[in-house]
Write a sequence for this structure.
């Protein structure tokens, strides 16, 4: 049992670099909670109190992020191992900001804040890993505001999907009306529709009323590296 937990914990960045003896000592002295969830079960919700570390060890979950006014939302499939909003262990926010549900059978390990603080006191490696994890998230978020200016409608739309995703890859379902997307990007509806139609023809998106399905976001990102056909606006668009 200890050996199973040992290899499971090593799949998370918080425990990388630990020797077997230190990790076994942590396993025997730390109060880990283990959970099994089935399809449709809620992992965390926006009314779930934070202040704990939630580790999705295996299985597939669907994470949903909402705009402040609930005017649109983004669903994405996340495979374990994955930490669920680790930035919410500390800070002023009292609840998670996303909804996570199990799509398949999922196994979780949770640690409450007191156990995390104890681990940080007793393990230098864990403390450094935790600081590196949180610092990296802050640095990536700050870097978004200093990217080179965007020039094309495709670039604006691609950036919108990127900054509203947990991971820059995988399947995404964006529930948003075209009128709201037009306001978010400040792009004329005809031009926006032209980009989406071109991407649809390339198999990059599936566009239905109030919903954009992205089978693989990485393909949209990689598409920016190859020349695309010029977008032609027709009078009827």
């Amino acid at each position: 049992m200890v050996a199973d937990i040992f290899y499971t914990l090593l799949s998370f960045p918080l425990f990388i670099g630990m020797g077997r003896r230190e990790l076994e000592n942590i396993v025997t002295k730390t109060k880990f909670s283990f959970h099994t969830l089935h399809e449709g079960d809620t992992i965390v919700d926006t009314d779930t109190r934070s202040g704990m570390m939630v580790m999705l060890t295996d299985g597939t979950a669907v994470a949903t992020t909402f705009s402040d006014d609930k005017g649109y939302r983004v669903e994405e499939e996340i495979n374990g191992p994955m930490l669920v909003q680790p930035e919410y262990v500390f800070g002023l926010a009292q609840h998670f900001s996303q909804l996570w549900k199990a799509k398949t059978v999922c196994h979780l390990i949770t640690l409450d804040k007191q156990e995390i603080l104890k681990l940080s006191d007793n393990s230098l490696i864990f403390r450094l890993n935790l600081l590196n994890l949180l610092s990296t998230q802050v640095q990536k978020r700050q870097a978004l505001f200093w990217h080179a200016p965007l020039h094309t409608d495709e670039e604006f739309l691609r950036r919108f999907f990127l900054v509203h995703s947990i991971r820059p890859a995988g399947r995404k379902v964006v529930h948003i009306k075209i009128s709201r997307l037009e306001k978010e990007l400040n792009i004329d509806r005809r031009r926006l529709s032209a980009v989406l139609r071109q991407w649809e023809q390339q198999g990059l998106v599936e566009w239905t009323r109030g919903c954009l399905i992205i089978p693989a976001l990485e393909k949209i990102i990689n598409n920016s590296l190859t020349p695309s056909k010029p977008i032609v606006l027709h009078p009827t668009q």
User: Anything to note?
Assistant: Residues 147-223 form a domain with the Arc Repressor Mutant, subunit A fold (CATH 1.10.10.10). Confidence is low (pLDDT under 50) at residues 225-237. Residues 124-143 form the longest helix (20 residues). The two ends are 62 Å apart (CA to CA).
